[in-house]
Structure to design on (892 residues):
């Protein structure tokens, strides 16, 4: 018999339980702060992660803490909001209860905002050896891997073997792949040769493989073409219609039969939603996304909502669902917050309608592409806009300030100073996490 | 047969191999840059660590990267300095060779600057469960442990059990213990109650246990007394002549028979030098320190030197060796650098003479103690001096600037924002490191 999560009072308020403190979940929790609801926000981490800048952490340009913000701090003075660091195990929608590793909890309204994870499309080899980029820890892992591989390259006398450690292969030509490729190309030209004067950097290649026929598939043709031009100018080897079929940790095989060698393969080729026990079997599509109506209510359930990347909603021009970008999640969270407030007043909810504010990607210093409603920009002004928009979206004034200083510093020196490889202490949290995982498995859900 | 470390040219220059990039090793390498020597600096990490501020990383006040500086960056333009991230396995002084996990290397002059590690005095239980504080990773580990334990406290309905997670016990009343105690007491009063409004902080205690009869044993009586007064004012429970004899992860036993409960025990009660195969058996004292003469030459060997915390030198007023503080290592490095340059010119080396510049410790906001030559200070001015001296000792202008901003921010808001618990990705570096360790073991030293 699982006990209740402790210290969450039964105080007569309707309880909204939000699973996931990403863009969507965090915005909803913030908008329901200081309302008549009791809000319980649950995330497996104790911080919100700003995903658009993961690639700068991976390339030693920003500190993890600049793009990770402690959730407790955000809700310090919001007495109706309770945060818990916990893993969701299962939902029982019949009795309005969720189960976590901290215990169970009743809800009046459940909002799922767990987002998506890396999709390896069932390829176990790739899953084992490739590096994903869907969390701050994974970005740090990539940073550490790159630094470690350069140390290894230095101890190879055979230049071809050294090149295997120096090469970096990025799979997936979406914003993550494109932005990483650009940042790595800049590291190759500006930083790495200074750090490793003994290595021959003409041997190093940054590859970007995309399965479809163009980069930045969600953006305009003009943006795609320009992004490819910029990347090639920076020295990236871009290959479209290139499908990676296998990887053994060193040798990368393409469908075409071509082979490449690299100890560093970053997999940003697709996403999938992790299944939610009790919900997904009934409401999920093949990609794991949860079907919702225009009010973000999950198909087949009452009092259960899904927002953000996890949700798939037929709406207006988006009959196959919206793109999985921050803007959709933020807007859905805003609409759901309004609707939950209307509900309190006994009023009718309003359907969601997505307002496309455009999209952008940065490739390098002074180089970005932006598709805005009514105008497409490339180059310096797009880059300045990109910087501004991302800076303003960061949680916390101090973070904003630190990122700005880092950017200005890096711009003028072209030499980020964060190339440190911190290895965990003996008892790593992986071990502890797995101990906990074992414990969780043993908990009897009855 | 072990191969040579690659890409270190034999160019007729005398080769100085320095093991350890701490205060002493780093200073020596810097002073030998752009000389007629070839310098090879070896460290197990790719960064220099600024130990005096570990406690601020542990208490979420500073970013690890602010006090860790990439060694490669320091030597980017020094073409006679080669850095290698490697573990020293053994020294063969007869044939002037060292062995590392990257291969072997001949030296003309070997300088050992590997410092010291935590000493558990043979108590295996304490070693297993206590948290040490001798590296950035260990400081991060402590930060994560504290944050994790507060999340656990929150899920206890029994206040006594919750208190076990909230209490923090520090063993060792030196600067580390004192500075940590002060910072934790300030977290207790200023930060934690805001983050965890559901918890009763009157249950939380910060304990500081010291085996001798006073805190800060290396400092004046006035400093010791004042430090204790300050700590008590901040709410720390200070116990001198308190020897911890056992710890099982929760229950702490003192020699006196008293028992205390806490899941967080920080062990800063002693240091010991890790043995160096090929050297220590002949030249080490019981505490592992290597005996050196007034030129820092290791007793019984030629062309082998030891500097910093690792070395023990009878000199002037210090017939039992100098205190193990940064100043000694820095001054020894400076003297050795001068001597090695004299050697090049065929001149006579000069003996080392320690110039005590004083010592200080900070307890909290506006509270510090300082023993300077000729003057002892406590309180606000000592604190400002402490800030200034530490800021100026940090490597890197950007680091200095970031630390300054963090300090100013934290001073006025009393709310550090770095309370994030980042867990490593699936394949942790611990695993990899241990794989490598296995590989190293297999290397045949012949």
């Amino acid at each position: 018999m699982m006990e209740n999560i402790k210290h969450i009072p039964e105080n007569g308020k309707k309880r909204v339980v939000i699973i996931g403190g990403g863009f969507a979940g965090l915005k909803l929790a913030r908008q329901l702060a200081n309302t008549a609801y009791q809000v319980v926000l649950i995330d497996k981490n104790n911080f919100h992660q700003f995903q658009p800048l993961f690639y700068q952490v991976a390339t030693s340009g920003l500190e993890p803490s600049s793009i990770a913000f402690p959730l407790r701090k955000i809700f310090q003075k919001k007495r109706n909001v309770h945060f818990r660091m916990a893993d969701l195990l299962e939902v029982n929608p019949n009795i309005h209860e969720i189960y976590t590793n901290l215990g169970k909890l009743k809800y009046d309204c459940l909002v799922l905002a767990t987002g998506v994870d890396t999709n390896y499309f069932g390829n176990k080899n790739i899953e084992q050896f490739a590096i994903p980029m869907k969390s701050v820890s994974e970005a740090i892992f990539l940073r550490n891997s790159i630094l470690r591989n350069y140390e290894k390259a230095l101890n190879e006398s055979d230049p071809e073997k050294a090149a295997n450690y120096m090469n970096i292969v990025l799979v997936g030509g979406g914003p993550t792949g494109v932005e990483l490729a650009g940042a790595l190309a800049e590291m190759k030209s500006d930083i790495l040769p200074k750090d490793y004067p003994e290595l021959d950097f003409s041997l190093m290649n940054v590859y970007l493989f995309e399965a479809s026929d163009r980069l930045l598939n969600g953006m305009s043709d003009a943006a795609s073409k320009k992004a490819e031009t910029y990347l090639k100018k920076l020295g990236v080897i871009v290959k479209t219609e290139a499908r990676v079929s296998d990887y053994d940790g060193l040798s990368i095989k393409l469908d075409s039969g071509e082979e490449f060698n690299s100890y560093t393969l970053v997999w940003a080729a697709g996403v999938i939603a992790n299944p939610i026990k009790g919900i997904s079997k009934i409401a999920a599509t093949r990609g794991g996304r949860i079907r919702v109506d225009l009010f973000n209510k999950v198909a087949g359930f009452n009092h259960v909502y899904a927002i953000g990347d996890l949700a798939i909603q037929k709406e207006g021009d988006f009959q196959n669902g919206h793109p999985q970008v921050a803007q959709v999640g933020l807007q859905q969270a805003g609409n759901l917050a309004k609707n939950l407030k209307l509900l309190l007043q006994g009023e009718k909810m309003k359907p969601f309608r997505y307002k496309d504010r455009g999209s952008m990607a940065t490739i390098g210093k002074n180089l970005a592409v932006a598709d805005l409603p009514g105008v497409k920009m490339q180059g310096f002004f797009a880059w300045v806009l990109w910087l501004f928009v991302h800076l303003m979206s960061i949680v916390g004034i101090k973070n904003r300030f630190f990122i700005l200083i880092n950017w200005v510093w890096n711009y003028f020196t072209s030499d980020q100073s964060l190339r440190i490889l911190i290895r965990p202490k003996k008892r790593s949290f992986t071990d502890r996490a797995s101990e906990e995982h074992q414990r969780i498995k043993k908990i009897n859900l009855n």
